[in-house]
Amino acid sequence: MPRLLEVLDSMDVNHAKSIHVFSKFFFNLCRTFGRTFTETKVKPKFQAVLNVPEDQIDTLVISGQTSLTKATVPVYTTGILTCYNREEDRKQLSTFLQDVITTLSLCHTPLDSVKAAFVELHANPIYHELLMTVLWNGVVHTSALVRAASARMFELLVRGVNETLVSTRVVPALITLSGDPEISVRIATIPAFGTILENTTQKEMLDRVYVQFQSFLDDPQYKDQHTLQVELIKTFGRVGPNAEPKFRDDFILPRLTAIAHANNNTSNDTKKSDIALQLFEAYSALSCCFISDDLIKDCLLPGLRCLKQDLEQVAPEHEEVVSSMIKEYETKIEGRPANMERTSSVSSSGSTSTSLGEDARSKFFNKLGALKDKSSASKVATMFARKK
Question: Are 130 and 93 a contacting pair, CB within 8 Å?
């Protein structure tokens, strides 16, 4: 057991398959040897490494020297706390998840470990209601840090959950949080609202989300909220290709154009760079969508031209990609053969698609690839090395 705990402590919490295998192993182990064995032999071993002395919580959690930030959390949650299903077992599971969310958020620590636990539990519908209850307790928590963490966690519960549950539990919770006194909590709801757009077709629910996005963009109190704008652009780029076409055409594209135009007049170079890079990502993602010639002319091209000017100043390495995008769209609406505008292309005559040509697309992905951390090697080989 100690050796297995060492392995979990050194394993990347984002190795979902490994976490699933370890969870299954401990689940079968506990079920095979029974409740008494689980309570007296297994749980105490995990609790010994998961319990952190109160006077050391800040130091150990923030520095990552505790199992609360490791794969130990999802394996303990889904492999041990779920192997029996009495009321007291479910209560222990719920309390543990709430405690971990609270501790990590109060210590300003990433939620990766508890997110991994949610993902594993989310695969089984019998835990959906329990997970909703855990997060709702976070919604009404006195700390803004915990409320913001709960808002971010709701994104995990939108996919694969009954739409009725999303409509009656998730959306009301997010709307409550979107009116929170703390701006950081309101911003934390944006990714979850975006995920709802990707995963539901229920008109009433979509309308409530549309209204919320409109409020984020039009309410004067958010006018100078840079972090909120960055989160909105990031979310629009992520959900745009999968959102309802009318919302994309009537809302996302015009709003991105307005943001790009405003960014041209921003004097703060750091803010200009943040917005421009997110717009670059968003426009690149939206390039795979069908967009009418009118929208290309009225929204897409003006926004891209503004973005090009900003990138020349703050990120010239991306300017060539945007120039290629602009040329492709100009070629499309002017009706000229695409091969007159570029030296390397595929035939696009008669095509009704407005997606980027292959040259612009390959340039874009090559640029993105250059931004990846090529030095990150697989940790699988060192995962099982015994700690010194």
Answer: yes
